[in-house]
Amino acid sequence: MRATNTFFQRGLLTTLALTCLAATAQEATIRKNLKERIPQMPEIEEISKSPIPGLYELRMNGADIMYTDAEGNYLIQGNLIDTKLRKNLTEERIDKLSAVAFDALPLKDSFKIVRGNGKRKMAVFEDPNCGYCKRFEAEMAKVTNVTIHLFLYPILTPDSHVKSKNIWCAKDKAKAWTDWMARELVPATADCDDAATTRNVEFGKKYRITGTPTLIFADGSRVPGAISAPQVEKYLADARN
User: Fold this and answer.
1) What is the pLDDT of residues 94-137, one digit of tens each?
2) Are 102 and 216 in contact (CB under 8 A)?
3) Is 202 exposed, middle or buried (0-12, 13-18, 19+ CB in 10 A)?
4) Which one of 39, 149, 168, 201 is most buried, counting C-beta atoms within 10 A?
């Protein structure tokens, strides 16, 4: 019996080794053919099988997704939709790849707005010239018992950089921000090292934060756009469960 088990284990290991070798050879073929045929194509960081037999997922630039066949003869750019489950598989995959763990956020490049006991926490990336952000701030004024880590994210206009610098360099950043967003009191001209705002933009590009506001909750949930106070409350509650 022991000999039989040993023989079975060896056979299983051999099968696994052959499977790995075949997968490696397949990846090598795809990389070689695409590099030769499309030299300007970004470096392929990962190749994996898609849910469709014979179709492979290519990951590039962190979270850019394309698809190809086993030989790299065809390249598909677009969304892969599961019609049974009614899910956008490409979008789900990109969201997973670009997810930001709350603990990984560079909180030193943000400032805090504390309401009530501040026990709950969330982070928000906002541009001071974003109309949707002002609408969102009006909703957030209804939410209490929360600590908001506000990341200035000047991506809309050159003036966004000016206002972000003046807010970041203000003695009371939270007040300067709220005065502008809620009351349209233009932040006073101030000067200091505002490299944090540049780092925020670089961080956002890395994690595909393409619009403002973008919200990140304690459980890593990421929400783009201006949502209502009740919706914020739901995400905060879910993040604590």
Assistant:
1) 878 877 889 999 999 999 999 999 999 999 999 999 999 999 99
2) yes
3) exposed
4) 168
Q: Which of 65, 58, 64, 50 is nearest to 27 (CA)?
A: 58
pLDDT digits (tens, 9 = 90+) for 7-44: 555 555 555 444 455 567 789 999 999 999 999 999 99
Enter the tokens of residue 36.
Answer: 């030769």
Backbone angles phi, psi at 132, to 5 degrees: -65, -35
Give residue 48's pLDDT.
Answer: 93
Query: Residue 192 is encoded by which pair of tokens?
Result: 């200091």
- Residue from 109, 129, 113 nearest 121 by CA: 113
What is the longest distance spanned by two Cα atoms in the chain? 83
Tokens of 51: 């849910």
What is the pLDDT at residue 14? 53
- Pairing verdict, β 222-224 and 44-49: unpaired
pTM greater than 0.85 (yes/no): no
**Rounded-to-integer distance, Cα 72 and Cα 178, Å:** 53
- CA separation (Å) from 15 to 47, 53, 201, 225? 21, 20, 48, 49
